[in-house]
């Protein structure tokens, strides 16, 4: 197989502010294996970057056999390193496998794509009035609200006054145990579906204590969850886990983590970084396996280089083509 790659810069429609920081663009990498394509998006809080992904691809370039059907063997032979780089290679391999077979990926994996949860749309951190305006103008039925500021309750209140959408809040590890225990009961009054990563990364005991308080809302872990062992470590500490291909290292490990979480009666939210239609469409092939979906990456960027998953409102529809089904956009 011929392995090549291409650094890309994704321009955001609006500045994207979360508890980790603010950005106006993201620097990703597209990977090509013959006619297969994958994407790596650096997970910033894991120290990932475009540069690190590119360095990893150089190391991994010598690990490929000539037959993409041996996906498991190829993936096991990859060197340790960038999870985003591994994800890009994993996605490209699966796309190539599907294209060589002439079959959409979800069918090759035995996944029924007819029943997919609606995806949330992210409302980035800003002044409460501006966030409420964005929520209202979106008309979206499921919203994920980025929190982690001094105005968190005002933000949720302002948004709830403007919409009856299902609301999820994501603190991106921005609260202390004490602050979360005080704030979450107040936020619950605004009718929330779930609270994502309320505490600093690694504070599993704090999550367990929050859940034991029976605060009236589901608690999900995101930044804490990278590996199958992380899922096991959070049994009874959270109600659900957030799985992203860029954290797990691709489609195969994500499938393992979804099955593992649900075997322990934990729910799963399938999510993404700021990714193009390549990475998000790859994740969307797994969406019907999960209880919640947060796959809005292509909606946040101006210059998506590919066409892939289709948004009919908040409903995801997979493209019909083989493999991922994504198509390169034709430049004007």
- Portion in helices: 25-40%
Strand order of the largest sheet: 4-5-6-7-8-9-10-11
CATH class descriptor name of the largest domain: Alpha Beta
The number of helical elements comes to 12
Uncertain ranges: none
On the 0 to 100 scale, the average pLDDT is 94
CATH architecture of the largest domain: Alpha-Beta Barrel
Radius of gyration: 19 Å
Morphology call: globular
Span between N and C termini? 31 Å
Sheet/helix structural class? alpha/beta
Look at the structure and name the CATH superfamily of the largest domain: Enolase-like C-terminal domain
How many domain units? 2
Portion in beta strands: 15-25%
User: Tally of extended strands?
Assistant: 15
CATH topology of the largest domain: TIM Barrel
Give a quick account of the main beta sheet: strands, pairing sense, barrel closure. Answer: 8 strands, parallel
Description:
By secondary structure, the protein is α/β, with parallel strands linked by helices. The protein has 2 domains: 100 residues, Enolase-like, N-terminal domain (Enolase-like, domain 1); 221 residues, TIM Barrel. Helices cover 35% and strands 24% of the residues. The protein has 12 helices and 15 strands. Strands 4-5-6-7-8-9-10-11 form an 8-stranded parallel beta sheet. It has a 3-stranded antiparallel beta sheet with strand order 1-2-3, sandwiched between helices. α1 packs across α3 and α5 packs parallel to α6. It starts with a strand and ends with a strand. The model has no long low-confidence stretch (mean pLDDT 94).
């Amino acid at each position: 197989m011929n392995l090549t790659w291409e650094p890309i810069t994704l321009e955001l429609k609006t500045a994207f502010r979360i508890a980790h920081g603010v950005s106006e663009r993201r620097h990703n990498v597209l990977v090509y294996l013959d006619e297969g394509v994958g994407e790596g998006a650096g997970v910033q809080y894991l120290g990932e970057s475009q540069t690190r992904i590119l360095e990893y691809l150089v190391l991994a370039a010598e690990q490929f056999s000539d037959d993409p059907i041996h996906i498991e063997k190829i993936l096991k032979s990859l060197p340790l390193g960038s999870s985003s780089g591994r994800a890009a290679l994993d996605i490209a391999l699966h796309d190539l496998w599907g294209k060589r077979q002439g079959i959409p990926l979800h069918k090759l994996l035995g996944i029924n794509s007819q029943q997919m949860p609606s995806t949330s749309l992210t409302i980035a951190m800003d002044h409460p009035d501006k966030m409420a305006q964005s929520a209202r103008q979106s008309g979206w039925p499921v919203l994920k609200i980025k929190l982690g500021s001094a105005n968190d309750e005002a933000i949720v209140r302002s948004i709830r006054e403007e919409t009856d959408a299902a609301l999820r809040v994501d603190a991106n590890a921005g609260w202390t145990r004490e602050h979360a225990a005080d704030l979450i009961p107040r936020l619950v009054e605004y009718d929330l579906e779930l609270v994502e990563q309320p505490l600093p990364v690694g504070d599993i005991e704090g999550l367990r204590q929050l859940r034991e308080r029976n605060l009236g809302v589901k608690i999900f872990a995101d930044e804490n969850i990278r590996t199958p062992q992380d899922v096991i470590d959070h049994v009874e500490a959270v109600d659900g886990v957030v799985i992203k291909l860029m954290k797990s290292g691709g489609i195969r490990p994500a499938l393992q983590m979804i099955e593992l979480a649900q075997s322990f009666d934990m729910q799963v939210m399938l999510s993404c970084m700021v990714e193009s239609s390549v990475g998000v469409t790859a994740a969307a092939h797994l969406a019907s396996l999960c209880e919640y979906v947060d796959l809005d990456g292509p909606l946040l960027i101006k210059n998506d280089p590919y066409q892939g998953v289709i948004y009919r409102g908040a409903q995801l529809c997979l493209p019909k083509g083989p493999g991922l089904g994504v198509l390169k956009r034709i430049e004007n």
